[in-house]
Amino acid sequence: MVEKELDLEWITLIKEAMSVGVTKDEILEYLHTNREERKVLVK
User: Fold this and answer.
1) CA-to-CA distance for 4 and 12, rounded, in angstroms?
2) Are 31 and 21 in contact (CB under 8 A)?
3) What is the DSSP string of the chain?
4) Which of 1, 10, 13, 17 is the 20 to 30 Å CA partner of 32?
5) Residue 40 has pLDDT above 80, yes or no
6) Tally of CB atoms within 10 A around 27
7) Is the pLDDT of residue 42 over 70?
8) Contacts by 7-12 with C-beta closer than 8 Å and gap 24+?
């Protein structure tokens, strides 16, 4: 159930970002960069 709520949160955030002009590619780049930074922090 928690995972479903998180998915809905992400969907809402992505829709809001796109509604103000953020592109799909910009969102994907941000998520990829953010993931790489988290990997560095964990090591």
Assistant:
1) 12
2) no
3) -HHHHHHHHHHHHHHHHHHTT--HHHHHHHHHHHHHHHHHHH-
4) 1
5) no
6) 14
7) no
8) none
Q: How confident is the model over 12-33, as pLDDT tens digits?
A: 999 999 999 999 999 999 888 8
From residue 25, give the alpha-carbon distance in Å to each of 5, 15, 38: 24, 14, 20
pLDDT at residue 6, as a whole number: 78
Sign of torsion over alpha carbons 12, 18, 24, 27: negative
Query: 27 with 14: CB under 8 angstroms?
Result: yes
pTM above 0.90, yes or no: no
